[in-house]
Design brief:
Elements lengths: L28 H4 L2 H6 L5 H8 L5 H13 L9 H4 L13 H7 L1 H6 L27 E3 L2 E2 L5 E5 L33 H14 L5 E5 L8 H12 L6 E5 L2 H4 L1 H4 L2 H17 L2 E6 L9 H12 L4 E8 L7 H13 L4 E7 L13 H11 L10 E6 L3 E4 L5 E3 L4 E4 L19 E4 L7 H13 L7
Parallel strand pairs: 3-4, 4-5, 5-6, 6-7, 7-8, 8-9
Antiparallel strand pairs: 1-2, 2-3, 9-10, 11-12, 12-13
Bound molecules: iron/sulfur cluster.
Length: 458
């Protein structure tokens, strides 16, 4: 047996026992399996977290969380029981060390961020911004981002059944926080969705539609089904991808009779019309892949859709180790039948520095996972470069390691560059977290922040 940096073992998926949490000690299997019960028992505030977890979680954690919500959070709190139950899954709150395990937990780190998680000097990068990918600037009609030549992103709604602390769409998605007011759609939902379909009918070059939000699991099923049925009637649409983290966070929803039957109707029509429907989900940690998640995924595959794929986000403290990423990929692939597809670098939204990895770290992780997974299931590590789009992390054109600035090129125009003759010659920048830079690089950014100078003049 050769000693390898990563040792593969098939691991059985586990549903942790929710009855270990004092607030859910009496919850029955039937209640737990109900999507309605899960939705109505989501944890939305500190008082509800206390009711569920109880005094086993030290007061200092609740104080740390309260400070974060007042001073740093860009997303409000919303965590379904299914996700809470996967945090510190091996301990009950009465066990010694529960608070430390909860603090260190990979899922807690991004779903329930606390003040002490954030970087004290550089909570935000000076180049960070709301809507850091400029999606709204590229709306062809409200909520429909046309950034690539052949594909569009349809943001159907601004809510999800769960709110992730690092959400890239923090500008639009979720409830306001003390720090962040949310952008509001101007058009009513039905008018917006109708305008999207009109645009797609009039734009035959688009063959691929990512149906997203928010999370499509928050749209009443009949409305989602009618929108997707409308897409299936657009002759030129060949791929439809439904984006839902809830497949992992609220698998109970995807197991309801209404959704299974509706998805089967859509899949049947799609097969007749030679269109592929896939679900894209968002799982960041192996412990989130439970038997219920596997069951929901298989139920969806059984309807006749083409695939279920995972788009995770690289997050420090959650999945920044090779072993964590490979454990996750094998958990997805072996028993849940979810295809590992992408890992994105965390986008440059405010207060995300403690989560973000440098480009060099992402390149190393991509290197280190190669060769363990089948080629078709080896995820690509992606930097979503503002005004460029998704690039593999090794596609960087130039990289200044001292200042932490990477430079990228592009090979197509977005709508906002239609009249820009230099769009395809220009280099576009992306930034590493400053606290990871050598001292000279950190000093550069401190001086720049003090003087508020534009980059070119420092
Ligand atoms: S599920 Fe997606 S859209 Fe919703 S909060 Fe999480 S990252 Fe944002």
């Amino acid at each position: 047996m050769i000693d390898q940096p990563y040792e593969y073992r098939h691991r059985e998926l586990v549903e942790p026992d929710w009855r270990r949490l004092p607030g859910w000690a009496e919850v029955t299997e039937e209640e737990w399996s109900s999507a309605q019960w899960q939705r109505s028992h989501c944890v939305k505030n500190i008082r509800q977290l206390r009711q569920v977890v109880g005094a086993g979680l030290a007061d200092r954690f609740y104080a740390d969380l309260e400070r974060d919500q007042a001073e740093r959070a860009t997303m409000s709190m919303l965590v379904p029981p299914q996700m809470i139950n996967t945090m510190a899954p091996l301990l009950s709150p009465a066990d010694p060390g529960f608070t430390e395990a909860f603090y260190a937990d990979p899922v807690r780190r991004y779903m329930i961020p606390v003040f002490s998680d954030r970087h004290p000097e550089w909570p935000s990068h000076p180049e960070s911004s709301r809507d850091s990918l400029h999606e709204a600037e590229m709306w062809a009609v409200e909520g429909l981002t046309h950034r690539y030549p052949t594909k569009v992103l349809a943001e159907l709604l601004p809510t999800c059944p769960q709110y992730c602390g690092h959400c890239t769409r923090m500008d639009l998605v979720g409830n306001p926080t003390p720090l962040v007011d949310k952008h509001k759609f101007e058009l009513g939902r039905d008018d917006r969705l109708a305008a999207m379909l009109d645009y797609l009918r009039a734009t035959p070059g688009v063959r691929d539609v990512v149906v997203s939000g928010g999370d499509v699991a928050n749209l009443p099923w009949p409305r989602l089904e009618s929108f997707v049925a409308g897409l299936l009637e657009v002759d030129t649409v060949r791929d439809i991808r439904l984006a839902t983290k809830a497949l992992m966070a609220l698998p109970q929803y995807w197991l309801t009779d209404e959704v299974r039957a509706g998805m089967e109707r859509l899949a049947t029509t799609a097969i007749k019309r030679d269109v592929s429907i896939a679900i894209h989900t968002h799982v960041n940690s192996a412990q989130s892949v439970t038997p219920l998640v596997a069951k929901a995924t298989k139920a969806m595959l059984a309807t006749g859709i083409r695939d279920v794929r995972n788009q995770g986000v690289l997050l420090r403290g959650t999945n920044d180790k090779t072993e964590q990423l490979l454990d996750l990929c094998f958990a997805l692939l072996d028993d849940a039948k979810i295809m590992p597809y992408y890992f994105y670098m965390c986008d440059m939204i405010p207060n995300s520095e403690h989560w973000r990895l440098s480009l060099a770290e992402a390149q190393r992780l991509q290197h280190d996972i190669m060769g363990y997974l089948p080629g078709f299931a080896t995820p690509r590590f992606i930097c979503d470069v503002p005004y460029v789009g998704k690039r593999w992390v090794h596609q960087v054109a130039r990289y200044d390691h001292e200042l932490g600035i990477s430079y990228w090129t592009k090979n197509y125009r977005t709508g906002v560059e239609a009249d820009d003759p230099l769009a395809l010659d220009r280099e576009y920048e992306y930034y590493d977290p400053i606290y990871l830079l050598p001292e000279a690089g950190q000093e550069f950014w401190r001086a720049r922040s003090r003087r508020q100078l534009p980059l070119a003049t420092v």
